[in-house]
């Protein structure tokens, strides 16, 4: 499985969506997905599932990057993922970045934002609660 520099291998779903590493900001990977047929819902708009997939992948990658930085290894299991759709994703690239809000020994909380033109104007956000075993 191809691996991005975040240390997290691209899953088949991430590859199908076309998710790619855009850059790493302060040790946190930022991902992008170009607009195309694999992510299109209604004409010229992102499908909500594709947006959620980008958010979820960016959240897991942020957690994995932090764990690697701390020399920790863990298998991650989702407890709860809540996605909030704020505006429609249009026919241009989308980006997403996760932020660890709490990192304990056995669980983590992650806030993730997806945007298109301006990171200050997200099109969707997610809150992830992850169990680490």
Tally the helices.
2
The first-level CATH class is given as: Alpha Beta
* CATH superfamily annotation: Hotdog Thioesterase
- Mean pLDDT rating: 89
Distance between the termini: 22 Å
Which term fits the overall shape? globular
Structural domain count: 1
- Total beta-strand segments: 6
Structural class: alpha+beta
Indicate the proportion of strand residues.
35-45%
Helix and strand pattern: HEEHEEEE
- Low-confidence runs: 1-5
Rg, nearest Å? 14 Å
CATH topology: Thiol Ester Dehydrase, Chain A
Could you estimate the helical fraction of the residues in percent? 10-25%
Strand order of the largest sheet: 1-2-4-5-6-3
For the largest beta-sheet, the strand count, sense and barrel status come to: 6 strands, antiparallel
User: What is the CATH architecture descriptor?
Assistant: Roll
Topology overview:
Blueprint: H1 12-17, E1 20-25, E2 28-33, H2 48-69, E3 76-85, E4 94-103, E5 107-115, E6 124-132
Antiparallel strand pairs: 1-2, 2-4, 3-6, 4-5, 5-6
């Amino acid at each position: 499985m191809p691996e991005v520099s975040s240390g997290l291998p691209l899953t088949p779903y991430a590859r199908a969506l076309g998710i790619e590493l855009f850059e790493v900001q302060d040790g946190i990977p930022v991902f992008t997905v170009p607009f195309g047929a694999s992510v299109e819902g209604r004409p010229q708009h992102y499908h909500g599932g594709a947006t959620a997939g980008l958010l979820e992948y960016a959240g897991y990658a942020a957690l994995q990057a932090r764990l690697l930085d701390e020399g920790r290894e863990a298998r991650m299991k989702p407890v709860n993922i809540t996605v909030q759709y704020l505006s429609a994703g249009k026919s241009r690239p989308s980006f997403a970045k996760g932020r660890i809000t709490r990192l304990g020994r056995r669980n983590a909380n992650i806030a993730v934002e997806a945007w298109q033109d301006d990171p200050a104007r997200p099109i969707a956000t997610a809150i992830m609660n992850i169990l680490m075993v």
